[in-house]
């Protein structure tokens, strides 16, 4: 088989250059994750649709360019008697484009997937989520192709690219409501979270329907063009027949309910230990990181010097993924993000803010005159260094000061009279 | 060999009636379609190839072939400049039903027929205007059509290019039904076996070129010796139509 058959009839660069770009953005987009020590399948699966952000617009714009080169109504081969002008053309063109772009995207995602498998986290790849990401690239290709066929103008190429890129904003601002219809989701899953099967299935079917509708529209439009834009009822019916499922499958459920983007494991296994009266627990998938969690929080609590009243537990976010961070839950649990890159985000957990009693303060924060105390205390708790108002105090004296003013800190009633310098 | 038959074909743009009950049989060989600007030649051709649907009447393509293959070379057309000639014609052939594996040989044959065979691997953008016109003809005949319709194929060509296209079309007429519309009466004189004159929305003349030349031409008609016999015959015929046009 001649290699040109893989691209025919256009020059190979029309296919290879965009495919290389799609491959590159998939590799670059996931490359930073290759060295992450705690990859888990939910996160890796999600990348198969999250990397649509740049790859999707590229595939769509390249398909638009292809369609404008071959399907312009003034081309000598756009003729009413042409037997393959319609479905056969679309099948060939979209077959070539989809195979190359989806293939390049899949190859770009493979290293991360293989590295995740080698890391050996519990579970395995969710093929339904992966399929939804691949079908999304195919849908972007079909949408771009249809726009190129209908407009016949290369001006559409950058417009399609920008339009597809704006889907990212739709995903972020639309959150759960946009999740069924936009390839990328508003955030990435934690360990212990997974994309619901129904959502992944819905998304796959929806993107497939969009692709089919666009292919049908392009085919009908090509036929209409060849026939002097006469739109026979038969073709109008075909297009309507292709678009109706998209409407039924895609739009009607939007009025029903916005699905959860991710669902948490209802009863996750956990590994725990208690230190300094605080119960530390991690998701079983993070069992090896229990010591790391303790090591991140215990020094702060040691510097605090006294058992905190606001919380008694510090748990891995993977155990309580749907709870907001930044402060203790109602049952006195502080949530700690154990990130896949190996870091523990103590700041997001709200540990120091909780110890300093910020949650008891009004929205405007603590009294202005006490800012220096809070700054000094925060630095001390995080680093162990005595600065600012506590500059001349050793650790024992700071701990003593905290112990003496614990009630004021927890109630946010510290005043300038309580400052160490007075 | 395929006959093209128009039965009582009428067409109008809004209130303007362009074709009125046109009944015409186009037989195998090369047939020329003459008519003044705005007479409806392009409209008639677009109805013939299915780009427009007549308000009334119908077009039939009959003959030995069960489903006749049709090729159409419009007056103005485009092709992507970066494509190779062989890919351009292969693609046109494939669209017209030629098996993918047979398209390259078919394209080469069509390109050789229009004297572009030695340039088949060059890009379309390197062609001159006349060569592009011949490329269009190659696109129209790559799938070996039974009926080939050409709308003003020699317009805008220089004399040598026109001669080359004429040679190509003359060779095609031997085994096909070829219809070409033109303003260039020399094309008709040297190419066509039969000629139809479209005037007043109908085929006002249907006969051989000789009939149009000799039966209707009046030697005393003013022309100062600057007209060919066919031009004189055509002009005389048009004059006889008078206000009926």
UniProtKB/TrEMBL annotation, chain A:
Record keywords: Membrane, Transmembrane, Transmembrane helix
Transmembrane portions of the chain: 12-31, 51-68, 127-148, 155-179, 199-224, 236-262
Protein name: Uncharacterized protein
Species whose genome carries this gene: Prauserella salsuginis
UniProtKB/TrEMBL annotation, chain B:
Superkingdom, natural source: Bacteria
Coiled-coil intervals, chain numbering: none
Listed Pfam families: ABC_tran
ABC transporter domain segment(s): 4-225
Presence of keyword ATP-binding: yes
InterPro entries associated with the record: AAA+_ATPase, ABC_transporter-like_ATP-bd, ABC_transporter-like_CS, P-loop_NTPase
Protein name per Swiss-Prot or TrEMBL: ABC transporter ATP-binding protein
Organism: Prauserella salsuginis
């Amino acid at each position: 088989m001649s290699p040109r058959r893989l691209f025919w009839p256009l020059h190979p660069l029309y296919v290879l250059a965009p495919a290389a770009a799609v491959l590159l953005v998939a590799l670059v987009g996931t490359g930073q994750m290759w060295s992450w020590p705690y990859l888990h399948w939910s996160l890796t699966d999600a990348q198969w649709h999250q990397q649509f952000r740049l790859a999707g617009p590229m595939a769509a714009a390249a398909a638009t360019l292809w369609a404008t080169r071959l399907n312009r109504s003034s081309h000598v081969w756009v003729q009413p008697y042409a037997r393959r002008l319609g479905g056969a053309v679309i099948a060939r063109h979209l077959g070539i484009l989809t195979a190359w772009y989806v293939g390049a995207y899949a190859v770009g995602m493979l290293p991360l997937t293989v590295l995740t498998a080698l890391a050996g986290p519990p579970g395995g790849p969710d093929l339904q989520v992966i399929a939804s990401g691949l079908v999304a690239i195919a849908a972007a290709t079909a949408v771009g192709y249809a726009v190129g066929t209908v407009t016949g103008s290369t001006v559409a190429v950058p417009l399609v690219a920008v339009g597809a890129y704006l889907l990212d904003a739709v995903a972020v601002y639309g959150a759960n409501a946009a999740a069924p219809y936009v390839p990328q989701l508003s955030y990435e899953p934690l360990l212990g979270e997974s994309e619901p099967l129904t959502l992944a299935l819905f998304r796959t079917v929806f993107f497939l329907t969009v692709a089919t509708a666009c292919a049908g529209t392009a085919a009908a439009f090509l036929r209409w063009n060849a026939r002097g834009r006469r739109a026979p009822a038969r073709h109008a019916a075909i297009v309507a027949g292709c678009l109706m499922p998209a409407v039924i499958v895609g739009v009607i459920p939007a009025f029903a309910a916005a699905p959860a983007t991710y669902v948490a494991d209802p009863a996750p296994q956990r590994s725990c230990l208690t230190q300094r009266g605080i119960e530390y627990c991690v998701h079983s998938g993070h069992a090896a990181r229990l010591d790391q969690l303790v090591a991140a929080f215990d020094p702060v609590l040691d510097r605090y010097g006294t058992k905190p009243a606001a919380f008694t537990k510090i748990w891995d976010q993977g155990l309580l993924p749907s709870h907001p961070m930044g402060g203790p839950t109602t049952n006195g649990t502080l949530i700690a993000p154990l990130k896949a890159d190996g870091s523990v985000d103590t700041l997001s957990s709200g540990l120091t803010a909780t110890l300093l009693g910020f949650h008891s303060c009004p929205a405007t924060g603590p009294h202005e005159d006490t800012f220096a105390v809070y700054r000094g205390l925060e630095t001390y708790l995080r680093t162990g260094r005595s600065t600012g108002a506590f500059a001349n105090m050793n650790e024992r004296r700071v701990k003593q000061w905290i112990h003496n003013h614990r009630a004021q800190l927890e109630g946010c009633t510290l005043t300038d009279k309580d400052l160490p310098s007075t | 060999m395929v006959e093209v038959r128009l039965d009582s074909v009428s067409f109008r743009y809004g209130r303007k009636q362009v074709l009125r009950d046109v009944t015409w049989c186009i037989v195998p060989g090369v047939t020329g379609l003459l008519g003044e600007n705005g007479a409806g030649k392009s409209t008639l051709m677009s109805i013939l190839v299915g780009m427009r649907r007549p308000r009334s009447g119908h077009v039939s393509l009959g003959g030995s072939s069960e489903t006749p293959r049709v090729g159409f070379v419009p007056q103005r057309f485009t092709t992507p400049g970066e494509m190779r000639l062989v890919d351009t014609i292969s693609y046109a052939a494939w669209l017209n039903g030629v098996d993918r594996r047979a398209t390259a040989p078919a394209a080469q044959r069509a390109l050789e027929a229009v004297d572009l065979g030695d340039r088949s691997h060059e890009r379309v953008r390197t062609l001159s205007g006349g060569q592009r016109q011949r490329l269009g003809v190659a696109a129209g005949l790559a799938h070996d059509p039974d009926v080939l319709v050409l709308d003003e194929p020699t317009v805008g060509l220089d004399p040598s290019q026109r001669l080359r296209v004429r040679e190509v079309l003359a060779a095609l007429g031997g085994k096909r039904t070829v219809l070409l519309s033109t303003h260039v009466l020399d094309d008709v004189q040297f190419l066509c076996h039969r000629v139809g004159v479209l005037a007043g929305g109908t085929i006002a003349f249907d006969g051989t070129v000789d009939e149009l030349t000799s039966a209707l031409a009046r030697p005393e008609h003013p022309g100062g010796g600057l007209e060919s016999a066919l031009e004189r015959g055509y002009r005389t015929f048009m004059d006889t139509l008078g206000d009926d046009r």
